[in-house]
Amino acid sequence: MKDKVLIIACGAVALELNQLKKLNSWDHLTIQCLDAELHNTPKLIPGKIKEKLDAMSDDFSKVFVAYADCGTGGLLDALLEQYKVERLPGAHCYEFYSGTETFKQLHENEIGTFYLTDFLVKHFDRLVIKGLGLDKYPDLKQEYFRHYKKVVYLAQSTSEELIEKSKKCAEFLELEYAVHHTGLGNFKKHIEASIEVDR
């Protein structure tokens, strides 16, 4: 019987986490997710994670946070340091999906890039169009995206449907488009390391 591990995760990575849990028979792993819409108000993320940490039962031998910094400006790291809890590496989920070196290259190729993941493609209307108020105030699109030149879809899956939808996202934003297949290999590597319990 393995020691129980709790992962507090962003809802945007819930599907991928549960896929990895099932494929790898990580039955000792418990996943608790926060609402992905917190990304529109990132300063609230540390407080929500703190609530989860404070409510955590004593059943778990280890806890891990499946977030990158995600726009908290270091506030998440300051919180996790108090609790001696680790998180996923990097500034955003784009980095832990693609790997730091690949993400760095993509960023250097075009600093004005808007990144999409499988989750963001699926929920583009809710999180981007409605979340940013573009459905009610379409003129804001030019304001929000004036410094962007390109959309890069970091694809975890090989879904042709998602690829076509991601192209439509780029068309809506009136930006250049590219797709980069990341798969789940890099994400899996970090999760595997995180769920090992120190003896």
Structure description:
The protein is of the alpha/beta class. It folds into two domains: 5-92 and 184-194; 100-181, no CATH class. Helix content is 44%, strand content 18%. Strand 6 (150-155), helix 9 (160-173) and strand 7 (176-181) form a beta-alpha-beta unit. The longest helix is centred in the C-terminal third of the chain and has 14 residues, at 160-173. The chain starts with a strand and ends in a 5-residue tail after the last helix. 29% of the residues are buried. The mean pLDDT is 93.
- Number of domain modules: 2
Oligomeric status of the shown chains?
A: single chain
Low-pLDDT residue intervals, each spanning 5 or more residues: none
Q: Helices and strands: which structural class?
A: alpha/beta
**H-E string:** EHEHEHEHHEHHHEHEH
- Overall pLDDT metric: 93
Measure the end-to-end span: 14 Å
List descriptors.
2 domains, three-stranded parallel beta sheet, alpha/beta, 7 strands, 10 helices, 199 residues
Describe the protein's topology.
Layout: E1 5-10, H1 14-23, E2 29-34, H2 45-55, E3 62-66, H3 75-83, E4 86-87, H4 93-98, H5 100-109, E5 113-116, H6 118-122, H7 124-130, H8 140-144, E6 150-155, H9 160-173, E7 176-181, H10 185-194
Helix pairs in contact: 2-3
Summarize this structure briefly.
Helix 2 runs parallel beside helix 3 (75-83). The protein is built from ten helices and seven strands. The strands form two sheets. The protein has a four-stranded parallel sheet with strand order 2-1-3-4, sandwiched between helices. Strands 5-6-7 form a three-stranded parallel sheet.
